[in-house]
Each structure stands twice: as structure tokens, then as C-alpha cells.
Design a protein that fits this description.
Chain lengths: 114, 423
């Protein structure tokens, strides 16, 4: 797949934009590249996201990988600060795991190599 | 971030394909039925051949070239071909795919036929082999990219080259277009930042301008034409009303609360990528498509226009993109801007050119959705002024001329509006 590195950085960009737009003050990002996949970990401290919002977040990200959407529109990811493109992020990843405990929200996005 | 809690019947992939299959089946029955009624199969066969060997440059209405029956049979064949590809490659039937399918069958009434679309698919297939990616990942771009199909017909049948070289050269140019359109269209998104729904129209406009300029440098002139069907057929109007009511009934069947929850769709701005099938479900999406189709027909009848090939292309494109970003709330300001400008400039509202400009102007719906009614109206006004002037640049070889104009308008307006926006 072309532009693999750029796609990963744009996923990070889009997620960071979403976090910053929703009032995040402190967070970590960790990227782990492996032979067959890339995992991106986001940790938000002092999370104020309620259960409904987290459910919406999961619904938006937890769609099937849609390579045809990714192939055409991936360059729009992380481009705009007016509204989020989480659907695009969802179309570019294979798995999402979201956990919240005691004000710490953890999101793991997994993208298998094509 | 908004998400409607979707409560609707689960539709399998096959069922979604069957819903779309209704369109080419209806077209085929209608096209053959008209010919049976007229008791003239020779005219149907000749009409199909006439459509295939016509140069198809903007505006070439297949209803005028081959007759009603042949135009509908051509649209049906294009529809079956594309649905076969979607089924073969097991693509997920999402909003983008519905938009692509509807756009392609709409333009099969003015510009696209099996002869001039296949080389573009072939070029796209070769590109994916070259890049070692799956064809199904690029098939949607290729479907939209058939916007440049007229150049293949123009070269092959437009008497601009000797016959022995025209046909192979036309096919080679088509393959070349298919080969380069995927990276080109992706790159063009950045110009308008997703605020022009017909992005391929913009990419095709750029590519068409380059190709036309090359031809003109070699003293080969490509000029737009105007071959338009001028009589309203109430049978066609009836068929379209039937199909759009069918979509609404399907929407109601899938989501029985569709009347109550229909306005959920208005919450979305419509900027690329806004897939209503994911956001509000298939029920509301199909219902929205049907409503938008009926509104288009009502508008055309109100201004005493003719529902011919180009107008059907406009209507089906609006209907298709009503699964992928368009709804009444974000389309209305744009349309109002076009309407006001046409009155001020004294354009004939009932003319086919004016009607399709208005219908296709909804490519800018995300601007109204994101920046409000005022900016939406301004965008509509600018769109009309540009679309009436940019066709000459590419000589009419880009069927999505409004997508080209829309891209320029969006790329021009968005940075200016953003610059004056207060944090």
C-alpha cells in the first residue's frame, strides 16, 4: 500500500485534533510498528468524556476497514479543524479498543499492513 | 460528533444490491417496453448503435441521439455492468458506493456508454496491477472517473483523426485516463478540502483541460455541442416518480420510525466523508434519497423544464449523493443562490443548461452545511457564474463540468471564509 507512513501520521493527526477540540489538557500518544501491523495508543488524562460520548466514539471508529474509502479519501484525514473525520479513521483501521478507568481514557487503534 | 442510535431492520449485502438492481431492471423493462409499444425494434437497435458511435461530448443527450428506448437500455446496461463489478468484488454497499452507482447510471443518459467507459476501467485495472493493490480498492474512483468517457468517443468517432487510427487512439487515451485518475483525484481533494462533493469532476476538469490543451496545440479543436431532447415524456416522469417513491417505501420498510427520525439527517454538514448509511442507517438514507429525487422532479416541472438525459443525470446524481452528504437543509441555500443569480442575470430557468446547473450546484452543499445559509447562497451564486464559463476550457470532454466549477468555487471561498472567522 502506498503512503503507509503518511496514513498513520494522518490518523494520529485526526485523533489528536478530536482530543484537543474536546478540551483535552494532557495526553500521551505512542506508536508501535510491527511486522504485520501498526498499533497507535492514545491516553487521555483527566477525561471528561461521558459514557454516551465514548459509545459514540466507539461506534464511529468501530466500523469495518473500508479500503475503497481509504484509497480515495485518506488525504482528507487530519486536514480540517471544523469537524472530525472519525469515520475516515474508522475506515482506515482494523480494530479499536477503548477503556476508561478513573479519569484515564485509553484508545488503541490497530491497522494491519496491507 | 453526533450519532443517531439506529434502530432498523438489518439488510444483508445481497438485499442492498437487489435494492439498487431495481434501477437497471426498471430501465431495461421501460426501454424495451417503449419499443414494443412503438412496435419498432429496428429503431431500438439502431438507437443503441447510434449512442455507441456518437462523439458524446457535452451536451449530447442520448434521448435525442438514440431515442427514449435506446437511452434507457444503454443506462440499464451500464447499471448492470457496474452492479456486477460491485457484486464480484464483494464491496460493502455504503453511501459512497450508492452515490457512485447513481451518478454513473444517471450519466448513462448523456455521455457514458459501454464503449467509452470500458477503457477507463481497463486503465484503472492496469494501475492497480502496477501498484500491486487490489482493484476493488480503486473501483469507486474509476466509476466516477468515467466522467472523461466523452474524450474516447470524441477521438474515436468525432472525425478529428483518420478512421484507422481514431479507434485505437481513443481507446489508448481512455486507458491512460484510467491509469492516472486515481492518484490525481486523491491529490485534488486538498484543493477544496472536501467541500466539493463531486471531487472527481474537479480532477477530471483539470485532466480534461490538460488533454484539450494538448489537442488544441496540434490544431485539433474540441468544442462543446448542444444536442438536447426537447419534449417532456410523462412516461419518463412517471417512471422516476415510481423509483423515488420506491426508495422512500424501502426506507420506511427498513426503519419504521423514519418519519419521526428523518430530521436526524439535517444534523450533518455533509462535508466529505459523510456516509449517511453509517450515520443514520439505511432506512433514513433511502428515504432521504427518495425525497430529494421527488423535489428535483417537482422543481423541473415547476419551471416548465424538460426531463431529458442531462436533467436525469442531474437528478440521479443528487439522489445518489443524498446517501453521501446531501439533504434539503444543506442544498437549499446553494440552490437559492443559483436561482437568484439566474433571475438577476436573466437566464431562462426552464432551459436544460440552467436546470442542470441548479441541480449539480448542490455539489457545494457542504459549504452551506458548514458555514450557514449566507455563505451557501454566495457559493451558489458564484457557482452559476463559473459553471457557465469553465466548460470551454476543457472543451466539453468532462461530463462533471459542475464538479469542476464547484471545486474552483470551494477552493476559492473556503480559505477566505476561514480567514475572517473568529475563534
Amino acid at each position: 500500500m502506498q503512503h503507509e507512513i503518511k496514513k498513520i501520521t494522518r490518523i494520529v493527526d485526526e485523533m489528536l485534533t478530536m482530543f484537543m477540540m474536546t478540551g483535552t489538557h494532557e495526553m500521551d500518544v505512542r506508536i508501535q510498528k510491527e511486522q504485520d501491523k501498526t498499533s497507535i495508543y492514545f491516553t487521555q488524562y483527566g477525561s471528561t468524556f461521558d459514557d454516551d460520548y465514548i459509545e459514540q466514539l466507539e461506534n464511529n471508529l468501530n466500523i469495518q476497514r473500508q479500503c475503497e474509502v481509504e484509497g480515495y479519501y485518506w488525504q482528507l484525514t487530519g486536514e480540517n479543524d471544523m469537524d472530525e473525520q472519525l469515520f475516515l479513521v474508522g475506515a482506515m483501521i482494523d480494530q479499536v479498543i477503548i477503556e476508561k478507568e478513573e479519569g484515564k481514557l485509553s484508545i488503541e487503534l490497530v491497522r494491519f499492513n496491507p | 460528533m453526533q450519532l443517531y442510535q439506529i434502530q432498523e431492520k438489518e439488510l444483508h449485502k445481497e438485499q442492498k444490491l437487489l435494492i439498487l438492481l431495481m434501477f437497471p431492471i426498471s430501465f431495461m423493462i421501460f426501454g424495451i417496453g417503449i419499443s414494443v409499444y412503438q412496435a419498432d425494434f429496428n429503431t431500438l437497435a439502431k438507437g443503441v448503435v447510434d449512442i455507441i458511435v456518437s462523439p458524446t461530448i457535452l451536451l449530447t443527450d442520448f434521448l435525442a441521439i438514440g431515442g427514449i428506448g435506446a437511452a434507457f437500455v444503454n443506462a440499464a446496461v451500464i447499471g448492470f455492468f457496474n452492479l456486477y463489478l460491485l457484486a464480484y468484488y464483494k464491496l460493502r454497499i455504503n453511501g459512497l458506493l450508492i452515490a457512485a452507482f447513481m451518478t454513473v447510471i444517471g450519466f448513462a443518459f448523456f455521455g457514458k456508454n459501454l464503449f467509452n467507459v470500458i477503457p477507463i476501467y481497463l486503465g484503472g485495472y492496469m494501475y492497480t496491477k502496477y501498484q500491486r493493490i487490489a482493484f476493488k480498492d480503486s473501483i469507486l474512483v474509476i466509476m466516477f472517473a468515467t466522467a472523461l468517457a466523452p474524450i474516447i468517443s470524441e477521438i474515436s468517432f468525432g472525425d478529428i483523426l483518420p478512421t484507422y487510427i481514431a479507434l485505437p487512439f481513443g481507446i489508448i487515451v481512455g486507458i491512460f485516463i484510467g491509469f492516472i485518475i486515481v492518484p490525481l483525484s486523491t491529490q485534488m481533494l486538498k484543493f477544496h478540502d472536501g467541500f466539493n462533493l463531486y471531487n472527481i469532476g474537479f480532477a477530471s476538469g483539470i485532466l480534461g483541460t490538460v488533454l484539450t490543451s494538448i489537442f488544441r496545440s496540434f490544431k485539433i479543436e474540441i468544442e462543446p455541442v448542444s444536442i438536447i431532447y426537447k419534449n417532456n415524456s410523462w412516461l419518463i416522469v412517471g417512471l422516476l416518480i415510481f423509483l423515488f417513491c420506491y426508495l422512500m417505501i424501502i426506507g420506511l420498510y427498513v426503519n419504521r420510525h423514519v418519519f419521526k427520525h428523518f430530521t436526524e439527517v439535517f444534523k450533518y454538514k455533509g462535508r466529505l466523508v459523510t456516509d449517511f448509511t453509517h450515520l443514520v442507517g439505511y432506512g433514513i438514507t433511502f428515504f432521504n434519497m427518495g425525497i430529494m429525487g421527488l423535489l428535483c422532479i417537482i422543481y423541473v416541472i415547476m419551471v416548465k423544464g424538460v426531463i431529458n438525459g442531462p436533467v436525469m443525470a442531474g437528478i440521479f446524481t443528487v439522489v445518489g449523493f443524498s446517501a453521501f452528504g446531501k439533504h434539503l437543509k444543506n442544498c437549499f441555500p446553494i440552490v437559492l443562490g443559483v436561482f437568484i443569480t439566474s433571475l438577476v442575470l436573466g437566464y431562462d430557468l426552464s432551459s436544460t443548461g440552467m436546470i442542470i446547473s441548479l441541480l449539480f450546484s448542490t455539489t457545494l452543499a457542504p459549504i452551506a452545511g458548514s458555514y450557514g445559509i449566507g455563505i451557501g447562497i454566495v457559493a451558489g451564486m458564484m457557482h452559476l457564474m463559473l459553471v457557465t464559463n469553465v466548460g470551454v476550457i476543457h472543451g466539453g470532454i468532462n461530463l462533471y463540468n459542475n464538479g469542476f466549477a464547484g471545486g474552483i468555487v470551494a477552493g476559492f471561498i473556503i480559505p477566505i471564509v476561514d480567514a475572517f472567522k473568529r475563534e
